[in-house]
Design brief:
Strand content: over 45%
Radius of gyration: 29 Å
Structural class: mainly beta
CATH class of the largest domain: Mainly Beta
CATH topology of the largest domain: Pectate Lyase C-like
Number of strands: 34
Distance between the termini: 119 Å
CATH architecture of the largest domain: 3 Solenoid
Number of domains: 2
Number of helices: 3
Shape: elongated
CATH superfamily of the largest domain: Single-stranded right-handed beta-helix, Pectin lyase-like
Length: about 525
Amino acid sequence: MLRKNETRRNFLRGAGALATAAAGAGARKLQAEAERPAPSAHTWNVADFGAKGDGSTLDTGAINRTIDAAAAGGGGAVVFPPGNYLSCSIHLRSRVSLQLMAGATIIAADTRPDRPGFAYDPAEPNDPWEAYQDYGHNHWHNSLIWGENLVDIAICGSGLIWGRGLSRGEGAGPVAEQPGVANKAIGLKNCRNVVLRDFSMLHGGHDAILTTGVDNLTMDNLLIDTQRGGIDIDCCRNVHVTRCSVNSPWDDAICLKSSFALGHSRATESVTISDCYVTGIYEEGTLLDGTFRRFADDVNVDRNGRIKLGTESTGGFRNIAISNCVFEGCYGIAVISEDGAIIEDVTVSNIAMHRIIGAPVFVRLGSRMRAPAGTPMGTIRRVSFSNIVCSETGSQACSLIVGVPGHAIEELRLTGFFIRHPGGGSRQDATIRLPEMEKEYPDPLMFGTTPAHGFFVRHAQGIEMTQITIGVDAPDARPCFVLHDVHDASLTQIRFPRGSTTPLFVMEEVSQIAVWNSKPVPDTEIGEAKSREL
């Protein structure tokens, strides 16, 4: 009886305490809910699904089973612990990220027709659009890692993707069109909300990363050291590329495209590229390992490695901002419309260039027209270059701004440009007549030696150049500027090499030209002239 009464008293005391605290209970509950940590994301470890990570066992099946389990569980992170994961085609899934831990390497297996499983997914058909872009930009399934029609995906971590068994699409190694062969490390098509961050890539194939029709794309802090193209961004919207380093001697480092590979024209737009280092000067793998071994001068290497808009360009480019980047031992910046692209509202600023191959700035409106019949000629307008320094250029090609007859480049501004080159151009070089070559593949060295050593501008209107300084290591007998079929142009505060004895400006078929504050040239306004030298 006593125990029963005691129990009753304890209950009453507890009930009283609860009643006393009732006024603050709701507030404390809300506070507790607010302070409770959010549930951690689900993680799946590839080792738990049979991946060995020993560099010799083929882990394709285990990796894909892990990704499928994560997708079936509503999404989350697929973790690769330290190890070497030999694999063929890895299939990404929506709401799943791949997390590469430090010491984890995904290795593209060599294609082995004699061994089961050592083959990649076949390239999907893309008829009838194959003719409008290179084979490597027409397919995505023949990649080491690929995804199509996905949302909310990521590849992150400080590990490595090594495309050891990938084809570069031409030259030595497996042929890209051969069944079972892959030619890209990462291929993404028609995806949205994609993050690629912090990992490194070695030997990436035709393209280390190909993204086509991908919207809301972030690439940050990637280190890519490869035997052909680095990053291709094709028909994409809202893209941010930051803090990436790319060594790609045999192709472009970061390339914007707007191809017809989706079967329709789609612009690449709203893109920022900032704080990146692009180069073509190092032997493959030596940017990655930090030894920075440069090719010998007599080694036959393209030393490409630049940032470029084009060449595939049916859909156009708009609202592009490139800033705070370093170019070394590679081609300069290129803005190219060859297949009907409208390029507009582009800004390039705060660029440091060293040992540039060919033209530091190459703006080309051409008419190759590798596009469906009836595609109209393209346009380049409202493009701005500012605060660019360039030293030790490696050729006799100056910066080129070249349209084609009847189709002028419009509204181009270049301000705050400093270039120093070896000089040495001859009087004979100054007489060169550059052919139009309007249907040829656009390349900054396509014309060979140019008749100007600073800028060659042809078929352009609405041009503004301000605060341009040109220096030479040796005297150059060519003019600094050649203007041909240029209208409505203002050239202000131009500084020329000391001791120049040849005409500094050579003009043909020009109108509304103003040269101001550019000693020793007197201030000059030209209403119209068939031929004029200053």
